Predict the 3D structure of the following.
Amino acid sequence: MRSEAMQSDAVKGSPAAAAAASAEYRAWAAARRRERIAVLGWRVLLVVAVLALWEAAPRLGLVNPMLTSHPSAVWQGFLVLIEEGDLGLHVGVTVIETIAAFALSMIIGTAAALALWSWPMVQKVLDPFLVVANALPKIALVPIFYIWLGPTQSIYAVAVAVAVFITILMMYTGFVQTDPNKIKLVRTLGASRSQILRKVVLPANLATFIATLKANAGLALVGVIVGEFQSANAGLGYLIVYGSQIFRMDMVMAAIVILAVLSLLIYLAIQLAEARLMRGGTGH
């Protein structure tokens, strides 16, 4: 930041000062680039080291390959799944269920948080119940949802139950922590509660919304996999259970790797959305 300030100030100064500031700024920018490259390099090195250790340990007899598999076997299992023609189906089912659960959780959770902010008395009544519901292990609800809703709808119910309560709590906390001075100012100007919400509270909670998106996306995926463990006949959760039942650890690990890739893609998508929303929020 100091280099950027000097660069700006040097525009008003002498050519020599401008040249010195430019040199310092270039040095600072180069250092930042080197840091980013170093971080990326260490990340790649860490992944390579883990994969190499995972590959070597079963081959050297340090662990039982039937229990842990290894990267080359996982790759072969991945190719087998592709050849069998079912991998696209399983991935598609899990992706659709995750997107649906994610969207429902955000819509329901944000609407509930708005309702709690709008009616403080309702929040005071429901607060302990929301805390208990958020802390309750959702896997305990899987059999109940299965009996009530059947094998397909229970997956969505479990995923929404996993994600929706943290959405409510995070969004409501952001709403009530909005700068009270800003609210007081617009209220003295005659703004209604809905105008305060639209003009002050919602814009002030853009960062909270992004943070909730990040938390909710991962939780929705977790909920879908938990639901698929119980009742699905398709999906990556089903592949994991089926592979473990027939001792195909390569299939299990391949499904887990695909889940990791899906999680990374979700993270990147939210990062892109965050960049665009923040640019829109700042007017750039």
Residues 15-59 form the longest helix (45 residues). The chain has a mean pLDDT of 82.
